[in-house]
Amino acid sequence: MKEKRILLRNYGRPNMTDAKAYMETGGYQGLKRALGMSGWEVIQELKASGLRGRGGAGFPSWLKLKFAYDAEDDIKYIVCNADEGEPGTNKDRVLMTNDPHSLLEGMMIAGWAIGARKGYIYLRAEYPYVLPILENAIESAKQNHCAGEHIFGSDFSFEFCIRLGAGAYVCGEETALFESIEGRRGEPRIRPPFPGTHGLFGKPTCLNNVETLANMSHILREGAEWYNTLGVEGSRGTKLFTVSGNVNNRGVYEFEMGINLKELIFDYCGGVPDGHKLLAVQTGGASGAIINPDQIDFNLDIDHAAPGGGRLGCGTVFVVDDTNCVLDIVRNNMAFFCAESCGKCVPCREGTRRIFLLLDKICSGSGTVHDLNHVIDLANTIKIAAFCGLGHSSAVPVLSAIENFRDDFNRHLDGDHCACCARTERSVYIND
Q1: How far apart, in whole angstroms, are the C-alpha atoms of residue 400 and residue 405?
Q2: CB 393 within 8 A of CB 313
Q3: How does residue 2 score in pLDDT terms, banded at 50, 70 and 90?
Q4: Residues 6+ apart with CB under 8 A from 72
Q5: Rounded to the nearest 10 degrees, what angle do helices 346-363 and 326-340 cross at?
Q6: How far is CA 38 from CA 76, 109, 115, 265, in A?
Q7: Torsion from C-alpha of 29, 33, 35, 41, nearest 10 degrees
Q8: How far apart are CA 144 and CA 38, in angstroms?
Q9: In what order do the strands lie in the sheet with 278-283?
Q10: How far is 310 from 294, CA to CA, in rounded Å?
Q11: Which of 224-228, 360-364, 425-429 has the lowest mean pLDDT?
């Protein structure tokens, strides 16, 4: 399978904040087509395309739009999650810096579909250099009648607002993101009610991430039938992959859904450097499963997973060679989740901290079989009892690593450890 650049078609082109330059590449043709259709017809086009969310959950994009479309309210919102807080992921940053108008076009198509006239872009705090790029693109779109009042001479108007996050991972959860935009502490809300009827400011809201919205501009321009020629059954289109870690060719790649993970690592990214061997791969970011080399021969699409739990998720692929230790990787993951827990629920607030301390003890060679079993019990409890997805997903790397690398964990028990796991200074967020 060769790389298929559709979302990245304008990568490296100059002046892509300029709406005219974007239109020269076929930009805003999808929005023009959408404005000639009813909102319901746009939703049906997206349904026929098979587009599913690219944030990790893979929820049907048309269904999110339908929930907000069906809601009876004069005020509705489109929200773009550009927080991209998953460690090792920077695909959305690449899209926003190289092709910002594809995001704006997608948001306006979604806005027309549900009857929204205003959209919020929630931008990651660590991306301050992206802010002027988006602002310039919005201003250029207005000047060329692609945004703002009476877009392309129609009755449709759409306003963009950008809100900066404060570096909180939990605000990747949609209701916590709404809370942050509204000026409150970023904590997840109780659901129901759901965002489709009671979202931002209590109004019907449709939230998607950058990659999902950018896809809408291409689908409306080329049509659902064209989009269905890409990818595999149930997972149509292309996907952006962020490949990092111990691999020769790191970067952001675009392939059709269904590419083989082993092929991606060794054929396109050049494999593990310096003659080292592959130890593990973590897919989907810090909240993804950690699998061993025998489990990487599977196709990356939304519905399928490796025997060890590895799956597509948000498209992040973290490669680990044999100069590292899996236990050290897992411990670092848990230090991250401890720091990023909003503290609202006990299972996540206390459970992640306790798991980190137990893993730290095991890494140092002071752990016992009882400690390891305690880690498993705590992770399983968090997986079902935490209030939101942050807590649920924090258990995934722990449980998958123990399942797939049990011998490595056993070797660290009862006074033994490895050089990689020699005790280091703990995170400043962790207190004994």
Answers
A1: 8
A2: no
A3: confident
A4: none
A5: 150
A6: 17, 11, 10, 43
A7: -140
A8: 23
A9: 251-256, 238-245, 316-321, 278-283, 290-291
A10: 12
A11: 425-429
236 - beta bridge partners?
A: 231
Give how far the C-alpha of residue 21 lies from the chain's centroid of Cα atoms, to the nearest Å.
28
The percent of residues above 70 in pLDDT, for the chain, comes to 97
Q: Are 324 and 246 in contact (CB under 8 A)?
A: yes
Task: Tell me which residue has tokens 């877009």.
Answer: 151
pTM, 2 dp:
0.94
What is the per-residue pLDDT across 373-408, written as a single tens digit (0 to 9) for each?
999 999 999 999 999 988 899 999 999 999 999 999
Residue where the block lists tokens 């994009």: 61
Which regions of 62-117 does DSSP assign to beta strands (E)? Answer: 77-82
- For the four alpha carbons of 31, 32, 35 and 41, in that order, the dihedral sign comes to negative
The strand pair at 238-245 and 316-321 is best described as parallel
Contact (CB, 8 A) for 301 and 234 = yes
Interstrand relation of 77-82 and 118-123 (parallel, antiparallel or unpaired) = parallel
> How far is it, in rounded angstroms, from Cα 281 to Cα 191?
34
Comparing CA positions, the residue from 136, 120, 102 lying closest to residue 30 is 102
Q: Do you know the residue count of the chain?
A: 432
Q: List the structure tokens of 239.
A: 């996907």
